Amino acid sequence: MELLNVNIPNWSDLAYWRPEAILAVTFLVALLGDMIARGRRIGVPFGIAVAGLVTAGSYAVADLGTGAHTVMGDLIVVDGLAAFFRLLFIFTGLATVLIAWTSEEIMGERRENKGEFYALTVLLTMAACVMAEAKDLLMLFLSMEAVGLTSYVMAGYMRTSLRSTEASLKYVIFGAVSSAIMLYGLSLLYGMTGSMQFDGIRAGLEAGVNPFALLVAVVLVLAGMSYKIAAVPFHFWAPDVYEGAPTPVSAFFSVGPKAAGFALMIRFFYTTLAAGPDAHASASLVSQINWPLLMAVMAAATMTYGNLVALRQENVKRMLAYSSIAHVGYLLMGFVLLTDQGLQAILFYLLVYTLMNLGAFFFVVAINNHLKSE
């Protein structure tokens, strides 16, 4: 009896996964530095986090244009899309660390040591990078849970704040429900196609499946991913979490996990429904589930609801939360036809959105430091 044909990861995989490896080491060293320097040198964990993020970013830039490579036994793919999101997440993590360093809400008026915050930021950055590189259902789910669990801890970082604790609890509840829904959809896809690889799922779908079962599976998976990006009607957690979490955390949440969700949607839906040499088969799969109508309705509802409700807000963080929901609607328009032009528009919009949103939250932190009000 033959053993299972399993691709076992080896050390050569690290040649294509250096930024993530550096971030993992930075997370551990930042925690160690926090324990050693606690109460004495508050700049040690901060410096470790900044140095690690900058180093990881440098390697990510150096790896540009090296082509596509599979890592960890075909669970992960490092390609141009992964490189784009690597740089986006590392920049977001670095900006969050710098924003937190200037925030009295995180550091306190006495400039206390908050090394665990910087370590968690680095960990969330690494998890988001892995989420953008997943090409297997197992890695898809594990990376989403890694991002989710780290986010829950960061949302409740201010342990003495009732709002922060409430935000973390709501995030956990909504996250658990959405994960269960998406996991059921993934299990349906695996049952229909017999594969956990995105390419294998596509081949199984092209071989012929029940259209209604495919629609149910896609809707369930889309529901789980819509929670991650805060699209209507799975947006309910976002305003309360953004308001209750510390402002630097809200800044990261508005970009990091949201962009990771879009990266996962691009990787999954463009591979299983749009990619492939057979254009007729792609059109057939999309038409079976009426994908353009589904995405158009979701995009229109998300952008309209987010903008209208944002006008009524008196708290600036809640206003930015609803504004980010509206931006999700604009981004979803790029998924309507699953074309290359749509993908280019999504990536460009995400880049501009990241810069503008982090800048907005930086000013919120500056105002909060002076006025002690949101």
Textual characterization of the structure:
This protein has 15 helices and two strands. Strands 1-2 form a two-stranded antiparallel sheet. The model is unreliable at 1-5 (pLDDT under 50). The chain has helices at 18-37, 43-62, 80-102, 104-107, 115-133, 137-155, 162-193, 198-206, 211-229, 237-244, 247-274, 279-288, 291-310, 316-332, 340-371; strands at residues 69-71, 76-78. The chain has 374 residues and is an all-alpha fold. β1 and β2 form a beta hairpin.
Present the secondary structure layout.
Elements lengths: L17 H20 L5 H20 L6 E3 L4 E3 L1 H23 L1 H4 L7 H19 L3 H19 L6 H32 L4 H9 L4 H19 L7 H8 L2 H28 L4 H10 L2 H20 L5 H17 L7 H32 L3
Helix pairs in contact: 1-2, 1-5, 2-3, 2-5, 3-5, 3-11, 3-15, 5-6, 5-11, 6-7, 6-11, 7-8, 7-9, 7-10, 8-11, 9-11, 10-11, 10-14, 11-15, 13-14, 14-15
